[in-house]
Amino acid sequence: MTAAEINSTILAVWRVEQPRLITGLSRLLRDVPLAEDLTQEALVAALEHWPDGGVPDKPGAWLMALAKRRALDHLRRRSMLARKHEMLMRELEQEQQAMPDPDAALDEDIGDELLRLIFTACHPRLSREARAALALKMICGLTTEEIARAFLQPEPTIAQRIVRAKRTLSESGLTYETPRGEQLSERLASVLEVVYLIFNEGYTAARGDEWLRPQLCHDALRMGRVLTLVAPQEGEAHGLLALMELNASRTAARTDAAGDPILLMEQNRALWDRLQIRRGLLALARACELGGGRGFYTLQAAIVACHASAATPAETDWPRIANLYAELATLVRSPIIELNRAVAIGMAEGPAAALAIVDRLASEPALKNYHLLPSVRGDLLHKLGRVAEARAAFQAASALATNKRERELLQRRAAEAGDGVPQAC
User: Fold this and answer.
1) Once rounded to an integer, what is the mean pLDDT over residues 294-311?
2) Alpha carbon distances (Å) from 61 to 7, 24, 33, 104, 329
3) Which of 58, 132, 327, 400 is buried most deeply by CB count within 10 Å?
4) How confident is the model at residue 110 (pLDDT cuts 50, 70, 90)?
5) Which residue has the higher pLDDT, 69 or 422?
6) From CA 183, how far away is CA 283, in angstroms rounded?
7) With 0-12 CB in 10 A as exposed, 13-18 as middle and 19+ as buried, what is 342?
8) Where is the DUF6596 domain (predicted)?
9) pLDDT greater than 50 at residue 107
10) pLDDT greater than 80 at residue 356
């Protein structure tokens, strides 16, 4: 392997292993910021050693073993200061003796342990915004820039939130736990938001060479299922699970053999996972039974259910989808929700009605660098026969896109618009 290939491999391994390392170390050390620091040290060690020695056969196990050794060294240095550390040292040493293969520990109850880590990061002592940003940084390994894009916030603002949240966690000695009762209710909304954002990053990656990050979707779904067991009477927990199940049911149809995106209206619906759709619809029904039918996640699940229930694109109930987006907008004032409503109105009433909405959204500061705004506008312009404007809009969208696959798709759409070839949205 060349140095560049090894570095690329290290970063790919890191994307998968980072949450596992932080989760395992947090469970053992009861100190989330320290666990993240040790995880970062393991990455630095890999960057130093793997280019010369080669990538290990089990890179995750290598990273975990190194991180645990660093944890033991850290505790030994402080062992005279606290009896608790002596106890944790023995626990670490006993675990290492009991599990000679560190790789065996990597998948140990990962869904529940990831969820516990999120609950810790979502402590009420932290602001709502800081909770989600910190959890996304630790669990997803997202960059500060990627988190800023998810929240439509300036990058320095997000960076400050993360620094303050880490300091609060470090100084307060908060317990690494899955809370119960009233404490669980205090944190649940933030935890649902984090799981939702993790799934979204897996479903459509903000950056990188691949459009999908399946492991993040898998982890989010697993945590969503655990959440419905931890909080079985919370309608929105079931609503979020329904939303993720229904969206994930389309995974096999969302990319072609080369990994390029396939737009919703062009997908082969025979590839949609009918079993997963049934699971999603059952979760949606349960959310409604529990009174969560008008919740943020449940309304989105109802929208996706309209697509899942349509055998062909022509059978999609676009007026209902537009109405559901309008209802969603009464809960959360978001220009992205309004943009999605415009798409539905374009399908239900025609592109001219939708374009009027999209043009009003052009002045929204939060959408200044949001690539889907010019992308939607390009599609509407193309349907109206305004080909040159459509091409310019797709080119502008491509320049803003930070995911390679999505950028290439928008470039193709710009070229097709120039050729006058119709393209469904």
Assistant:
1) 96
2) 18, 12, 21, 8, 46
3) 132
4) very low
5) 69
6) 24
7) buried
8) 187-287
9) no
10) yes
Residue appearing with tokens 């959204």: 361
- Residue 73: the pLDDT is 78
Whether pTM exceeds 0.85: no
Mean pLDDT of 22-39: 78
